[in-house]
Specification:
With 278 residues, the protein is α/β, with parallel strands linked by helices. The protein has two domains: 4-41, no CATH class; 57-276, Glycoside hydrolase/deacetylase (TIM Barrel). Helices cover 45% and strands 17% of the residues. It has helices at 4-15, 17-20, 26-31, 34-42, 71-82, 92-95, 99-109, 124-128, 130-135, 137-150, 179-187, 211-224, 245-259, 273-276; strands at residues 57-66, 86-90, 115-119, 157-158, 166-168, 171-173, 191-192, 197-198, 201-202, 206-207, 232-238, 264-266. Strands 1, 2, 3, 8, 11 and 12 form a six-stranded parallel sheet that branches. Helix 5 packs parallel to helix 13 (245-259) and helix 12 packs parallel to helix 13 (245-259). The chain is globular and about 45 Å long. The structure holds zinc ion.
Length: 278
């Protein structure tokens, strides 16, 4: 009997023959014209700009605090099964806890263009000590630069710990307390990514909204244009919320509800407008 996962892999491979080049696709690449060869290379490089289609709505699933097993693996598996792209904003202190967490994050890093790993600091604001973090600018910036190097993050994309802040190219939007740290990172070429909607949690890791309520919120905010950038929606959640199967099921339902609208496209955060602007 052939498993569903295997069939999915085969379907994905066939469907993306010329776009992503399967492992055994060297013959096809040789016969492809130069334009197709260029597409094969570019789609595999993080940060290569995409062209926006104004008839589409772009959804960026951005999950924070990875690696946090088993939530991180559950989310990655669910995203794969659903065929959607996602971004993992990762914490270097979590990455360095043990070899298992290192393996988890390293496998996510290899999974581009499906997944992108981005920077969520080294210590998560000295273990959620936000007031101290954002008033000690040098320490905070160094914490983020150290995480970038330690996890070998491919692009300068950061989500600040505990702050819904957007910044890049000299522009800033977010809590005043984070302005100096964001400004310093901006001057170093970083793009700081906030969020439009959060899948909130209670008691540390239990999803607060139902999948149905959250999907309705996404659709409503798209409809009224209540997003940081037009036709784009950055959704925040945390890997640890999906440790239990019932919540993994909620995540699956949420994605399936979003996929019902053919306008919805799932992208990694390197393709968010302010990140694509140089
Ligand atoms: Zn966080």
């Amino acid at each position: 009997m052939v498993s569903g996962k295997f069939l999915f892999s085969i379907t994905l491979c066939l469907g993306s023959l010329f776009l992503f080049s399967c492992n055994n696709g060297s013959q096809q690449s040789k016969s492809a014209d130069s334009t197709q060869k260029k597409a094969v290379v570019n789609t595999m490089v993080p940060g290569t700009p995409i062209h926006y289609d104004s008839s589409k709505r772009y959804i960026f699933l951005t999950w924070d605090d990875s690696p946090q097993p088993p939530g991180t693996q559950n989310c990655a598996r669910t995203f794969r099964e659903q065929g959607v792209k996602a971004t993992f904003f990762s914490v270097a202190a979590h990455y360095n806890i043990d070899p298992l967490r290192k393996r988890i994050l390293d496998s996510l890093k290899k999974a581009y263009p499906e997944f992108l790993v981005a920077n969520h600091s080294y210590t998560h604001a000295f273990r959620d000590n936000y007031n101290f973090y954002y008033t000690h600018i040098d320490s905070a910036v160094n914490d983020i630069l150290k995480a970038q190097q330690d996890m070998q993050i491919p692009l300068k994309i950061v989500r600040l710990p505990g702050r819904n802040t957007w910044a890049g190219n000299g522009e800033f939007r977010g809590p005043k307390t984070s302005e100096k740290v964001a400004g310093r990172l901006d001057s170093l070429g970083y793009k700081i990514i906030g969020w439009d909607i959060e899948w909130q949690f209670i008691k540390g890791n239990i999803p607060k909204q139902s999948a149905t309520a959250l999907a309705k919120d996404v659709n409503d905010k798209f409809d009224i244009g209540y997003t940081n950038q037009p036709n784009t929606m950055v959704i925040l959640a945390h890997d640890r919320m999906f440790a239990k199967q019932q919540y993994v099921d909620s995540l699956k339902t949420f994605i399936q509800l979003l996929k019902l609208d053919p306008r919805n496209v799932f992208e990694t955060i390197d393709h968010y407008p302010i990140v694509q602007q140089k």
